[in-house]
Amino acid sequence: MKLLFIRHGSRERKAGVRDAAQPLKREGKAEVYRLSGVLTQVCDEPTKCFSSKYTHANDAARLLLDARGLQQLQVVELDSLTPGSALDGIGAFLGETQSHIKAGDVAMVVGHEPRLGQLIAEMTSTRIPPICRGGVVCVEAATLADITVGLGKVAWRWPVGDAGGVDLTEKLTSKMEVSGVLAGLTLATVAVLFAAKPSALQVISALFLTLGAGLFVASLYIYDRLLMPAAFRPADGAGPSIGGNGVVHYHMVRAWERVFSPGLAAAVIGYVLMFAGIGADSSKPIPSSVLGLVDTYWPLLLCLAVVAGVVLVYRALRPRLGVD
Description:
Elements: E1 2-7, H1 26-42, E2 48-51, H2 55-67, E3 75-77, H3 89-97, E4 106-111, H4 115-124, E5 136-140, H5 144-148, E6 153-158, H6 169-193, H7 200-227, H8 247-276, H9 290-317
Parallel strand pairs: 1-4, 2-3, 2-4
Antiparallel strand pairs: 1-5, 5-6
Helix pairs in contact: 1-2, 6-7, 7-9, 8-9
């Protein structure tokens, strides 16, 4: 049997539209058509077709079938290929497909990275570079049992130019360390500024330092997410799995969730309270009017705006490893 693992073409990124509903853009359709021409030359006619439930993956699958004149062939949508689904890995994939695939089949499997790469690694016991958009990797096996125990073989891939790869672990680790150091230095500088009653210019300076510290911490989170081994990464939108990845991973996630993140939240609260004390006279009652509150606690409001801005930037730019 042959399994053709195909990554969808480039997709639209329309504002206000969920990732799952984003269609292929014109360039993405062209990428799929180019792939179709290659498959026609080097591969037998597909007998099965599977895709994720995302629109752009499903569109790519149907375009490939249409190009081969196989409109009658059903596209079976699988949870195990869909980003954000709790069903993940070779067990889930085989559970959904074992009633469809048999010896001698040529099956197209259209989905996303990193799920496709993880499936190939489990089926072949070999880690390969990610598949590019509109690319394909062919895995061959004599029986379904061979795939189940990792005895499948990578027969070929296209385009061949995407077969390289660079190990960025050391680079990411150094960037993570630098982010942590810079976050500490900027926060220490702010503490020095507020050791005495600061001037208005110093308050503005402290706000910029706060922004810098927040972005350093956000980048630290991002680098740590990128350093997570592929097998330990949760599907996007799902919680981290700590059941089957070993005791080290279990305690790492536990410390992250129950020690580091609460500690960071406590530091932010303390930081906000420090700003709240700037310019406030404890002998005076708290102002009852909105303008009075703004006039008294304007440094606090600016700090909250900075923190909220950092959070929004982080959520917008953090890597969504289960969705491409």
